[in-house]
Design a protein that fits this description.
By secondary structure, the chain is an alpha/beta fold. The protein folds into three domains: about 30-235 and about 245-255, inorganic pyrophosphatase (n-terminal core) (Alpha-Beta Complex), CATH 3.90.1640.30; about 330-440, Diaminopimelate Epimerase, Chain A, domain 1 (Roll); about 455-554, Beta Barrel (OB fold (Dihydrolipoamide Acetyltransferase, E2P)), CATH 2.40.50.460. It contains 16 helices and 15 strands. It has helices at about 5-15, 40-50, 65-80, 100-110, 125-130, 170-190, 205-210, 220-235, 240-245, 255-275, 280-285, 290-325, 345-360, 385-395, 420-435, 455-465; strands spanning about 55-60, 85, 115, 135-140, 155, 335-340, 360-365, 370-380, 400-405, 410-415, 475-490, 495-500, 505-510, 525-540, 540-554. Strands 2-1-3-4-5 form a five-stranded parallel β-sheet, sandwiched between helices. Helix 2 (about 40-50) crosses helix 6 (about 170-190), helix 7 (about 205-210) crosses helix 8 and helix 9 (about 240-245) packs across helix 12 (about 290-325). The chain is globular and about 75 Å long. The relative contact order is 0.08. It comes from Aliidiomarina maris. Keywords: Coiled coil, Exonuclease, Hydrolase, Nuclease.
């Protein structure tokens, strides 16, 4: 395999050690047997299908939960399950995960087996209630567990301390997918024709949920995403995914992993944030073209509403940050933001946006109806936000009603009456966990490209060796360029025509969301930029474009 030296270096820096690791074929997926409890869970699930027990899927209200729920429903029907159904808690009225209330609702619908997807590892009370009602619970989850586990029939989670599965970064939909692989193997052991069910049929859903949940793209996850992208590009995917891509103006044939993350996932997430995730699930489940289009348009409308709400909340946050600076105070190591009118469904996005702006962990809170503040946290590399919150819980348990999550994102509930005390203990925990140098943002570049490497062919090769994403970052290069022309497009985006210092060629470039107080600046003749190579498709023509991530006047 012939690769430019710079691309070889890019891949080596990201841990690729052999050509085989670039061959993202399904045969290289890790075997399900390494997942603790997965074969036990598969046997129970198979027995339920064969005895025609009614199975309830309990999902989550985000895109990972929606794809996990859809995957399980579609597959169980194909395996011959009798009328499987799903229940997903409403973010605003039910809280998170498998609660006793949800168990009772499932029992009322005749559930004889409950399977959780993308939740359940902290559902102690829910599992206890199910056991009391003689309903077995299979938990499939990927969130970090506590030292004690719920007393479920089986608990499949790669982050279990006693689990030796080689890929601990699976999204919730990835764990569900592996349970289905184990179920198919169970049928093979029974000599059943159902062993011919093709689980790969639903890899489009696995790819979408994996990208949406921003889990690290280790080798195993890259295979799952790549195989799902291939199905979508070929048009062999759920009609709902195609409809959402069409509404967002994306050509499925040119689809990249980032397109799923920036176009399809936000529209599905918008349902869970502002209304009911059932809209997103039904859009993914349905084969009725008219219904799919109607639901996709509803999701698109909700996403526009979400963007408007987010914009208003970001303005509130900006005023808060400005006031801190006017008062002469330095920003704390972790920011806690709260306004009584903020929307519960959008605080996670707000926390992420502010984190990008100030480069430190941010927790945004919204008022719930029961005297509790719901918080959503987003962190920076090197600061494990769930561990920070757990430390606050250890210092003052009464200030944290519930919490869970990952290193980079977490959720929590704080009694409103203890919010000030919570912030004090959070500041104490921040001192223990965060060093000042961790709050200095550093852009890591893959170096400078030669004029010959600034080409459409190089951009296509980079695209070919994706998917790129969390933990397998898309290559970022830097260099000096002459500015041939510059102008603002779309209100706040800087469109540039650049020229390498020692070459006559010119290259299109765009920097999104620039500071309009600084740009355009017609006095600037040279810039130092950090950029990614991009294939720009326009009117059936392809050309090279530089996507500018950072720009300095040189």
């Amino acid at each position: 395999m012939s690769l430019p030296p710079s691309l070889r270096q890019v891949l080596a820096r990201r841990g690729v050690k052999s050509v085989q690791e670039l061959e993202l074929v399904a045969q290289q997926l890790r075997h399900f047997a390494g997942l603790q409890d997965v074969e036990k869970a598969a046997a129970r699930l198979g027995a339920a299908i064969e005895s025609q027990q009614r199975i309830c899927i309990v999902g989550d209200f985000d895109a990972d939960g929606a794809t996990s729920t859809s995957l399980m429903l579609l597959a169980l029907r194909e395996f011959g399950a009798r009328d499987p159904f799903y229940i997903v808690p409403n973010r605003f009225t039910d809280g998170y995960g498998l609660t006793p209330k949800l168990v009772e609702a499932a029992a009322a619908e005749g559930a004889q087996l409950i399977v959780t997807v993308d939740n359940g590892v902290s559902a102690f009370a829910g599992v206890e209630r199910a056991n009391a009602l003689d309903i077995d619970v299979i938990i499939t989850d990927h969130h970090l567990p506590s030292a004690r586990l719920p007393d479920a029939y089986a608990l499949v989670n790669p982050t279990r301390r006693d689990c030796n599965f080689g890929s601990r970064c699976l999204a919730g939909v990835g764990v569900a997918f592996y349970l289905l692989l184990a179920l198919r193997a169970w049928y093979r052991g029974q000599g059943s024709s159902k062993a011919s069910v093709n689980i790969a049929t639903w890899l489009d859903l696995v790819a979408l949920g994996t990208v949406a949940d921003v889990v690290p793209l280790d080798f195993n996850n890259r295979i799952l995403v790549q195989q799902g992208l291939a199905r979508i590009r070929a048009g062999r995917c759920r009609p709902g995914i195609l409809a959402l891509l069409q509404l967002s103006g994306r050509d499925p044939r040119q689809l990249q992993a980032s397109d799923l993350g920036f176009t399809v996932a936000p529209r599905i997430n918008a349902a869970g944030r502002l209304d009911d995730i059932q809209i997103g699930i039904e859009c993914l489940l349905s084969d009725d073209a008219d219904k799919v289009q109607r639901l996709a348009e509803q999701l698109d409308s909700l996403n526009r509403e979400r963007r408007s709400t987010e914009h208003e909340m970001r303005e509130d946050a900006a005023q808060y940050l400005t006031q801190i600076q006017l008062d002469g105070d330095s920003l704390p190591a972790i920011l806690s933001l709260h306004q009584s009118h903020w929307h519960q469904g959008v605080i996670g996005i707000l926390a992420g946006r502010v984190k990008e702006q100030v480069y430190r962990p941010v927790i945004a809170f919204a008022q719930a109806d029961d005297g509790v503040l719901k918080g959503s946290a987003r962190s920076i590399p090197g600061v494990h936000i769930r561990d920070v919150i757990e430390r606050v819980y250890t210092l003052a348990p009464h200030t944290v009603q519930a919490f869970g999550g990952h290193a980079m994102a977490a959720g929590l509930s704080v009694p409103a009456q203890h919010f000030d005390e919570f912030k004090q203990h959070l500041a104490q925990a921040a001192e223990e966990f965060i060093q000042p140098e961790q709050l200095q943002q550093v852009l890591l570049s893959d170096g400078e490209l030669s004029s010959d490497e600034l080409s459409l062919d190089m951009a296509r090769q980079i695209s070919q060796y994706g998917p790129w994403g969390q933990g397998f970052s898309e290559p970022l290069f830097d260099g000096l360029f002459k500015v041939v022309s510059q102008r603002i497009v779309g209100d706040k985006h800087l469109k540039l025509l650049l020229q390498p210092l020692h070459h006559a060629m010119t290259i299109d470039a765009i920097a999104f969301g620039v500071d309009l107080n600084c740009w355009p600046d017609l006095q600037v003749g040279q810039v130092h930029i950090a950029y990614r190579l991009q294939v720009n498709e326009f009117r059936s023509r392809s050309n090279l474009q530089l996507l500018v991530e950072h720009i300095d006047k040189a």
